[in-house]
Amino acid sequence: MSSSLVQVAVFLILTGLVALATWWRYRREARGSDSTQDFFLAGRHLGWPFIAGSLLLTNISAEQIVGMNGAQNLLQVWWEFGAIAGLLVLAKVLVPMYYRYGCATTTELLERCLPHGAGLRRMVSLLFLMGYVFILLPMVLYTGARFMQSMFELDLSILTIACLFALAGLAYAALGGLRAIAISDTYMGLVLLAMGALVTWFALDRIGWDLSGIPAERLTLWGDAQSDIPWPTLLTGMAFAHIFYWGTNMLIAQRALAARDVREAQKGIYAAALLKLLTPLIVVLPGIIAFKLYGDINDDAYGRLVADVLPPWLAGAFAAAITGAVLSSYNAGLNSAAALYTLDLHLPLINPKADGKRIGQRLQVILMLVSLALVPLYSHAKSIIATLQQLNGLYSMPVLAAFFVAIFVRGAKARAIQIALGFGVLLYAVFTFAWTPLHYLHLMCITLLATVLVAIVLSRFLPETRATSSAG
To answer: What is the pTM of this model?
Structure first.
């Protein structure tokens, strides 16, 4: 049997085994009486191992592996270590609040903390939805397809490969909901960690475990003003980006909301934080090794390294691991977007008696088609990880400001925060597309602080609204 046939056989067998194990475990899990809650929050019966596994694999997708290794420098480790701080904020500060108020979405907290906060909740949900549809979902499909194409030299277009990913991700998200997603994430996460560690081992063996000859600026933890991550940004935009991503982002926090109770959620989060100490060995070190072997080849680094150092008989297993990582982030995005639309917009505004599960499934099909249509837009990005973080700033910092003011500022008004939210989005859009005086992480911090300030000032002067909140 040829090596290519072996690779395909291993890929199909491993992928099939994970699907079979997911189905077996899925059938054994307890079901809730509410089909909507069961679909979006796994009936609130998710155990801590599945929370930890799903948190990890949702975060480590192809755009993370390809993009961070594509930067080919040690500075990227701060994205992983900073994540630990974000996870601790989620566990110690936000998760107890989500459970105290019985939130089904992260945005529901805004409504619970503020008088007349329903409009703010819906506005933030719309921002999340736009971020998922126009940034996250197409980026996940593009990076996954690009990696598979570069590694296996497939005679298929990136759009064709992205279509295959999208259909498979839709199947998990629409048929099994969050429970199936979390279970498959955990099983495939174990495969990904094992395969990623093997790639790093073989790569280090290829260079004789010797990193000499790599420029010092590639191995430093303290970036200068011309680097990807200047060291002052660790104290400004990066810190807040992590708090937003891990604490308020529905894509991530949804797993914690699906736990049996606060303690179960916290155990899963702490386990994910511990695993984050190991992930730089998979998402940072291989890119540096690739620089020594091939020079500066940007986002093609990891795919070329894997194809070069991994034994042919393991290539199929690695392809299955990457497929799992892509599907994890993609189906998580579909499910979270559908939850936000269904629970925050459709049920309270359009039809409170609608079948939430069915509404979510239909929306996921639409989102899949839209995200596929946007995949070609990302083919010209110079650095995937920098592009992703920069574009996320369009909504991440204004949204984080809204959460901060709603939770911690006494006397804050929902209407004032809504106006400030719009201001923050416009301000960062100017910084991104018209005038960029500083590093984008500094600009994210400025956007956050300016949005908070505007919300506080407006809260002091705007009259109380007479509208009533529709708590849900």
So the answer is: 0.88
